UniProtKB/TrEMBL annotation:
Record EC number: 3.3.2.9
Species this protein is from: Chrysodeixis includens (Soybean looper)
Recorded family membership: Belongs to the peptidase S33 family.
Top-rank taxon: Eukaryota
A GO term from the CC aspect: endoplasmic reticulum membrane
Start and end residues of each Epoxide hydrolase N-terminal domain: 56-165
Claim: Transmembrane helix is one of the keywords in the record: yes
Subcellular location: Endoplasmic reticulum membrane; Microsome membrane
Name listed for the protein in its UniProt record: Epoxide hydrolase
Active site per database record: 231, 375, 431
Swiss-Prot/TrEMBL catalytic activity: 1-(4-methoxyphenyl)-N-methyl-N-[(3-methyloxetan-3-yl)methyl]methanamine + H2O = 2-{[(4-methoxybenzyl)(methyl)amino]methyl}-2-methylpropane-1,3-diol; cis-stilbene oxide + H2O = (1R,2R)-hydrobenzoin
One GO term (biological process): epoxide metabolic process
Membrane topology: Single-pass membrane protein
InterPro entries listed in its UniProt record: AB_hydrolase_fold, Epox_hydrolase-like, Epoxide_hydro_N, Epoxide_hydrolase
């Protein structure tokens, strides 16, 4: 009798556990209710205008003499740095001996006028979307009628701008062997970044930036288009494709991330069987102790910018030296995380002029605060959380370079991106992929474009 009673208890316990696991699994894969989003929400100063200016205006980048002279004066008349500790390279942050050399180059050799000229070889425009002036590069290829032209919206992240794409735009807009299409590139500055206007209203998170970018493409006459994005741009783009699958024909990301609840659970479960979960690159995520050690070591800036963006903004807005040190140290670590034992800390993975372009653009436009507030806005709002946990069927391609900030195996990515049609990993490269490895980046965008066309052809 005792044995039968114990068996009943065991069976009942097993059933209860199974039911609990099923309920938990259903919770993990459940899709939140679609939030109600105002697609014309006003982000400009003051009340919403009765009629918005919809004109498209040519724009030219200008590093003017007054700015240059003031900047150089500030760089020259700075206070002296504290020397690095003995035996320390970049483990404590920006190596000030190396910073001395960079600032000297910025003053004496960085050619402001030439760099502006290089940027201006592309057509630049501004147009007002929902109260904010948005800046973008638009390059329309000249091809014969046998070549299809695919509109491609490109979105950058922090602390970058559309400048990030200047090395790949010529390739993307030129026909390549083996492909019967080419891209028309629209590389936009996110609001508050680069030459785009920032808002003075709270709530401009990745959801609403995604809405603005979709409205930008509609303004330009594109009801359907493709999207390429990384960093914060990829968060804005991910939510854009989730909200508007009818407008997006394909999504290519060099920082693909699924923030669904089920993906988080998979990450921890995967630590028990890492080679089963990711036979190609389990070492990029596991062991989790190594992963979280890196995250904790390098995410102090993230927490600061998430909680107090205006404070760090006030500290850096008035000092180009501080701005350069802060930005370059973060650019360095995501360019090559394995070079903390060098004076440059990973920065020499990029061309120094490209790095100084980014710092100069942020200094010129005084946009550190408006750009950095995205860290605070990005995780506060329920619509962002709901859409992050909503899968999308838009065909998606993942490009994973070695030193990217975040890495997920395809098993996790498919939770969010149901139709993951292409996934490519490289054992080199970093976070600013279009600057690090423009050749491989552009090749993968073309290969992904072919997969997107194939996907829609088969669907028909």
């Amino acid at each position: 009798m005792k044995a039968k009673g114990e068996m009943k208890i065991l069976v009942l316990s097993s059933v209860l556990i199974a039911i609990s696991l099923r309920i938990f699994y259903n919770y993990l894969i459940s899709v939140p209710e679609r939030p109600n989003i105002d697609l014309q929400r006003w982000w400009g100063s003051g009340p919403k205008a009765a009629k918005e200016d919809e004109s498209i205006r040519p724009f030219k980048i200008d590093f003017n003499d007054t700015m240059i002279q003031d900047l150089k004066k500030r760089l020259i008349n700075r206070r002296r740095f504290t020397k690095p500790l003995e035996g320390i390279q970049s483990e404590y942050g920006m190596n000030t001996d190396y910073l001395e050399k960079v600032l000297k180059y910025w003053v004496e050799k960085y050619d402001f006028k030439k760099r502006a000229e290089l940027l201006n070889k592309f057509p630049h425009y501004k147009t007002r979307i929902q109260g904010l002036d948005l800046h973008y590069i638009r390059v329309t290829p000249k091809v014969d009628k046998n070549i299809k032209v695919l509109p491609l919206l490109m979105l950058h992240g922090w602390p970058s701008s559309s400048k990030e794409f200047v090395k790949v735009i010529p390739t993307l807009t030129t026909p390549q062997d083996g492909y019967d299409f080419v891209f028309e590139v629209i590389a936009a500055d996110l609001p508050g970044y680069g030459f785009s206007e920032g808002t003075n209203k709270p709530g401009l998170n990745p959801v609403h930036i995604g809405v603005m970018m979709r409205n930008l493409m509609l303004r330009l006459g594109f009801k359907q288009f493709y999207v390429q994005a990384g960093d914060w741009g990829s968060q804005c783009a991910t939510l854009l494709v989730t909200l508007f699958p009818e407008n997006v024909l394909g999504y290519h990301s060099n920082m693909p991330v699924s923030l669904r609840r089920i993906s988080t659970v998979k990450m921890f479960v995967g630590s028990l069987f890492p080679t089963w979960i990711d036979a190609d690159h389990p070492e990029r995520l596991y062991p989790l102790t190594k992963h979280f050690t890196y995250v904790f070591r390098e995410s102090g800036y993230f927490h600061l910018q998430f909680t107090k963006p205006d404070t760090i903004g006030a500290a850096l807005t008035d000092t180009p030296v501080g701005l350069a040190a802060y930005l370059m140290e973060k650019i360095a670590i995501v360019s090559n995380r394995d070079q903390l034992d060098t004076p440059h800390g990973g920065l020499e993975s990029l061309d120094l002029d490209d790095v100084l372009d980014t710092v100069t653009i942020m200094w010129t436009n005084e946009c550190f605060v408006t750009a950095t507030r995205l860290y605070s806005e990005g995780f506060r709002w329920p619509e962002d959380i709901a859409l992050q946990d909503t899968p999308t069927e838009v065909p998606t391609a993942a490009l994973k370079f070695l030193h990217e900030v975040a890495y997920q195996p395809d098993w996790m990515l498919r939770d969010k991106f149901v139709n993951l049609v292409r996934s490519t990993s490289f054992d080199f490269g970093g976070h600013f992929a279009a600057l690090h490895n423009p050749k491989e980046f552009a090749e993968d965008v073309f290969a992904s474009g072919a997969e997107f066309l194939k996907f829609h052809s088969q669907k028909k």
